[in-house]
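Protein: VOC family protein
Species: Antrihabitans stalactiti
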Amino acid sequence: MASRLNPYLSFNGNARQALEFYKSIFGGELVLNTFGSFGAPDASIADNIMHGMLEAPNGFTLMGADSPPDDPSEYNIGNGVSISLSGDDAEGLRGYWAGLSVDGTITVPLEKQMWGDEFGMLTDQFGFVWMVNIASSAA
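Structure follows.
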């Protein structure tokens, strides 16, 4: 397998819901493994996601998991990372924008910007920031 870079999102008990939401937008195959399926002794997190991976037909891959309740790190939601979608497939990118904005907060409307591209930014219903840039057809 070739090397690849993809986001790994951390959740606070709602990874299943979030990854299923992203699947409804991007399509593809979603594999979810729970803490319980790996033998976690804490029954309170048995159904939480230890590792999830969505592989969309367009080559996008999103991974994610629920943070264990005893994890002292603060890498949950809002860690200063934004997820960027960009390209010249205007119809596809507008579709992702529409899906991701459901119950989210648009911080920059998806519209033409001074550099000539359409750009928008939003925080989805799970607290993740998404940036969408549709390349201008003018070279």
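Remarks: The chain has two domains: 8-66, 82-134.
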